[in-house]
């Protein structure tokens, strides 16, 4: 049985069989929550439609086992080509109908034949999300080095190389139907005094301006920020303020990208989200979770309440009729060191949808009234009433109606997907990427 065949069959028969087995249990749980929400004045059908519409992109580098700087314990059956990566995302999408986009990293995943790759993705009902440039590594045939920076480098020739690479990434993306470029700049320093902060910022701005010029009119540029790593004294784009400054100076196609792991401990990320959406500058979002830094753990595994509070601001920003913020691009950006990457991605999508759905349940009018009355107790009651609602049956119902599985992980395991992938691709496979 080929993998593609398995994935296609999933859509039709295997999912139905799985859902049939879980039907009665699911139905009683769904009726219970649907009744309660209806009594509370919610429009359950509207909520289900919103849950179904939320699609979260899977990055091409998240399909294999990640690693740390100490080691990488690769799992079996990892995708060895872009085609296999698309098949993996296609499988996820068939199981949950919520991961209908793939985000490519160039040069790790340059399509040899863009047309063929595009139509392969279409077979799996996938589109191409933002394309990601990479100036944090030197490529084998690269004459100049990014060791001391790329878009901010003191040497104009290195900056030129990094600019050309980004323009090249845009071209690859255009062939695939992508509409955004994500720039994550590793540039920074390890020691005080190593760099002139102002010059580094100015050079980065000038480089980004050149890339921006090459950006098609219907594209967006997402600028990611990160306080440290791989350099540990300073980074050129250290925080949302720096990202916002760059995006504002570049123009209306440039936006900030919030990666959950790119904040120092205890940063109030929900407040950052609120401010950026107020300014219409939140373009993209990278989901993961962290205990300490950019840990890239499964989103929702460490701080689910924070995720809910962030979604509370996102939903407010998205549903406000006066909002000037375009719909953000959602992507999972995590590293899978311990879990099966595909299971981890299924869990991630579920966690995102849980937080989103709970945020949809927040009674905005009552919350606003409590805030205006400075009633902190009531504000907490309202938020936690939504957060403590078990919305899992709603998400399962939205999936069921979309033709997906009631319980993705159970289906994945019952079908022995990983075992089949190992049979097909081998036990010792290493996926390109992190
Ligand atoms: C790096 O820390 C950033 O989160 C990037 O968005 C991403 O993980 C990287 O580009 C993958 O190579
Ligand atoms: Zn990221
Ligand atoms: Zn990161």
Automatic annotation (TrEMBL):
Record bears the keyword Chaperone: no
Gene3D superfamilies on file: Divalent-metal-dependent TIM barrel enzymes
UniProt superkingdom: Bacteria
MF (Gene Ontology): isomerase activity; metal ion binding
Keywords of the record: Isomerase, Manganese, Metal-binding
Name of the molecule in the record: L-rhamnose isomerase / sugar isomerase
